[in-house]
Amino acid sequence: MATTTHSKARRSAAGPDPTPDTTAPDNATRLELYRLQVELRSFEKRAYDLFLQNLVKGTSHLSLGQEAIAAAFGVAMRSDDYTFATYRGHAHTLARGVPMGPVLAELLGRANGLMAGKGGSMHLTSVEHGVMGSYAIIGAHLPIACGAAWSAQYRDSGQVAVAFFGDGTTNIGAFHEALNFAVIWKLPVVFVCENNLWMEYTRTTTITAVEHPAADRASAYGLEPVLVDGNDADAMHHAAVAALSRARAGEGPSMIEALTYRQGGHSRADPGKYRPQQEVDEWLARDPLPRYRARLLDAGVPVAELEAIEEAARQAVERATEEAKAGALPGPELVLTDVWADGGSSWRN
Ligand SMILES: Cc1ncc(C[n+]2csc(CCOP(=O)(O)OP(=O)(O)O)c2C)c(N)n1
Prior knowledge:
41% of the residues lie in helices and 11% in strands. It has twelve helices and ten strands. The strands form three sheets. It has a six-stranded parallel sheet, with helices on both faces. The chain has a two-stranded antiparallel sheet with strand order 1-2. Strands 7-8 form a two-stranded antiparallel sheet.
């Protein structure tokens, strides 16, 4: 599986037909892609351990198995671009350079958390890193990403807004409204559907008219179908660079459907038992991390270089855990601030 780009797109009766991607990123980019994937994986494994110790407050949704997508965009995006994530947004937040410590502390509900412990896993935001929020209402952020893109277009700033969402989200009205608006206004926005096959406990194909919920609908909005192996960091990086360049060149939006799989359940303690074991096993065999590691070794990267990246990620997670656990619980002075938009009744008229 590889990338269908705008120029290479072609269709078959069964939907978009991926065309082999022959362009690989340079070595420095590949090492960066590997570093980010390892960090995201190590962070979320630790988050899961802390959840099992009952230290994570509120719910959380892991994207173990989907790291190549966030990593590819993290590497390809400009530092002033905008990210709009869902409740499954740890990876997208970290991939923009938000430090692990405050993110982990936020999951633990501590005062040193990214949102002072008041947002939790589902509301990670860091405006200074371009992370314009994680949204729990599915599809809600797509029109908001259009707003950010419209602002960038108006200011001629060259920034691009990227919105990540799941396959189930493509059946929400906001998805279609955002796409239509983005195309009509030629907005610099990239829609990234992470098709992990499941929306909560329902297989998306059982409630969706087409096989590829984003790519098969692209033509309805005048867009080329872009179907990518979301477990292949090189293919994802290629697709990300193409879509970002297109947006920056004033050519308007793109929609990417990245085929992937969440290795765990939907949220918290969900064991995901509604999924056939054979399906889980097949996707575990396509785990993006060992696959990418093997590719780098094949390309001649010394194993010691990869081990150093892995050890650095392990140490970073240890430091983040200590930092998060050392945080106090937010007191009344924090709990009662930034939770109400000042302005009272004036907002209503
Ligand atoms: C408008 C709305 N309806 C229903 C829900 C409940 N809900 C939370 S997650 C989810 C499934 C979303 O699936 P998908 O878009 O495929 O994303 P994934 O969780 O797989 O990343 C649903 C229906 C919600 N949060 N918002």
